[in-house]
Amino acid sequence: MSALLENYARAPVTFVRGEGCELYDDAGRAYLDCIGGIAVCALGHAHPAIADAVAEQARTLVHVSNLYHHEPAGTLARELTARGGFARAFFCNSGTEANEAAIKLARKRAFRRGESARTTILACTGSFHGRTYGALAATANDAYKQGFGPMPDGFAFVPFNDVAALEAAIDERTAAFVVEPVQGESGVHPAERAFLQRAREVCDERGALLIFDEIQCGMGRLGPLFAFEAFGVRPDAVTMAKALANGLPIGAVLVAAHAADALQPGDHGSTFGGSPIPAAAALAHLRVRDTLGLEEHTARMGAYLARRLQTIAEAHPHLTAAPRAMGLLAALPLREPLAAAACAAALREHGVLVGTAGGNALRFAPPLVIDEAQIDRAIDALAAVLALRQAQGDTEGLRVTQGGSG
Ligand SMILES: Cc1ncc(COP(=O)(O)O)c(C=O)c1O
């Protein structure tokens, strides 16, 4: 019996090693990883440049806290802000913490400007921003909140991609509008460019901060380093985590100059935030990205994956609905009673790992280095799983192969 709390429905497989897009279990079996640790391992598993950076940093300096400066975090802050056109960075350890920091920054900024009634954090229906209380309060789906109430006050929601509702919702009490350029957890729903453009205008007109949560869709997943570049809309702050250090725990908030003085000494902090090893890994990630031409590769592979998923959807109209994709983030919605978790488990039996996302969809967030032959392998396995269901004329059988909780 596992000694771990049962808050995850872990699949009954134990991984011992990874290389590139492959993971290997304790029986030596290889799996093609099309979920990449949930949009984390952008360069693939055990990338030698990341491993070297981590090892070198571990031999040099592991921890000093944020009482002092250290080179990896300083350099990473300079690199990220320069690449994104921001002024300053705050580092933490995860995505939810990055959003907590952004929420606190937005409220403190208003407070410092003498606008103490400007406290509302406006988010979107379908949003997912994390599991700690502030980020959870900004998360739309009530299922994540059930039994954890009361939630913090001062959070409101506007329908995703509804420009008129957004115009009506942002007012002099709005500290920030927080939005994922592509909603990941709710099933890969891209924002419409016009929605983000109007958000930019209305936030400017009414004095609210525009914050993009790029934790899942940033760090090259859509092609460019930042998701906002793919939409041509510049936020006042962007939150990052997941792929930033290609698997080591780090989160970041990058902030534009006009909001960067909102947090002053003592206002916010984290013992481990931006500590030397994850910061060194994130720097190595940026350097490797630069040498690989990943922006173009991601666009090409993303288009290829989207095309192949479309073909699958057309071949199995009774089991699937139209796929949604942007860059190398894609979802294939499944029709009931075919359950996404059961389909993912069946794919795992075929040696392919995918995730699931809201609305009964399979989610694909593979390493950005995936190639066409690997996408073909994943799609062939998916075709085999779906063809079996179609041939059997029922979709119930898949349910029994669903993974246990480890
Ligand atoms: C858009 C988005 N924001 C925030 C988070 C929370 O990140 P973490 O799990 O690192 O706290 C996630 C995680 O899935 C996410 O997809």
Question: Would you mind describing this structure in some detail?
Answer:
By secondary structure, this protein is α/β, with parallel strands linked by helices. Helices cover 37% and strands 17% of the residues. The protein has 2 domains: 15-33 and 293-401, Aspartate Aminotransferase, domain 1; 48-291, Aspartate Aminotransferase, domain 2 (3-Layer(aba) Sandwich). It has helices at 36-39, 48-60, 71-84, 95-112, 133-137, 163-169, 193-206, 227-231, 276-292, 294-315, 340-349, 372-392; strands at 15-19, 22-25, 30-33, 88-92, 120-124, 155-158, 174-179, 182-183, 189-190, 209-213, 237-240, 251-255, 324-326, 329-333, 352-353, 355-357, 361-364. The longest helix has 22 residues, at 294-315. It is globular and about 65 Å long. The termini are close together. The model is unreliable at 399-406 (pLDDT under 50). Bound molecules: pyridoxal-5'-phosphate (PLP). Pyridoxal-5'-phosphate binds next to α4.
Spans of at least 5 consecutive residues with low confidence = 399-406
Global shape: globular
Can you tell me the CATH topology of the largest domain?
Answer: Aspartate Aminotransferase, domain 2
By CATH, the architecture of the largest domain is named 3-Layer(aba) Sandwich
| Name of the level-1 CATH class of the largest domain | Alpha Beta
Number of discrete helical segments: 12
> What separation lies between the terminal Cα atoms?
9 Å
